[in-house]
Design goal:
single chain; mainly alpha; 3 helical TM bundles of succinate and fumarate reductases; 5 helices; 83% helix; 0% strand; elongated
């Protein structure tokens, strides 16, 4: 049997087979989508809060609910990662860390920094 044929990998195994730079790039795109969708949620809450006192109470109650806190945490953590990865891309534009090892190190640093920011944000929100 010919062993040079392509192998279809299931999605979890495929994610483990990707290099860290690819995972960081995909996560940067995903966080951009989360931020785009999250802005509609935040703009809706701002509109409710600015409408009247009852709307302000409703917006505050939404953000105090566990699901509201989780949504806010997801948006803020996405913002943190997106900013860190954006700074990494700006550094790459100036040829800082544009080697293979530099790219890997930058990906790991951006993932670690965003993870720490996510933990800090979780402690702050809860």
């Amino acid at each position: 049997m010919n062993s040079d044929r392509p192998v279809n990998l299931p999605l979890p195994r495929l994610a483990l087979a990707m290099p860290v730079t690819a995972m960081a790039s995909i996560l940067h795109r995903i966080t951009g989508v989360v931020l785009f969708v999250g802005m509609f949620f935040l703009c809706y809450l701002l509109d409710r809060a600015m409408a009247d006192a009852a709307g302000f109470e409703q917006a505050a109650a939404t953000l105090e609910a566990p699901l509201g806190k989780l949504g806010l945490w997801a948006i803020l953590t996405s913002l943190a990662y997106h900013v860190v990865a954006g700074v990494k891309h700006l550094l790459l534009d100036f040829h800082v860390g544009d080697s293979l090892e530099g790219g890997r190190a930058g990906a790991w640093i951006s993932l670690a920094a965003a993870s720490m920011a996510g933990v800090v944000l979780a402690v702050w929100l809860w």
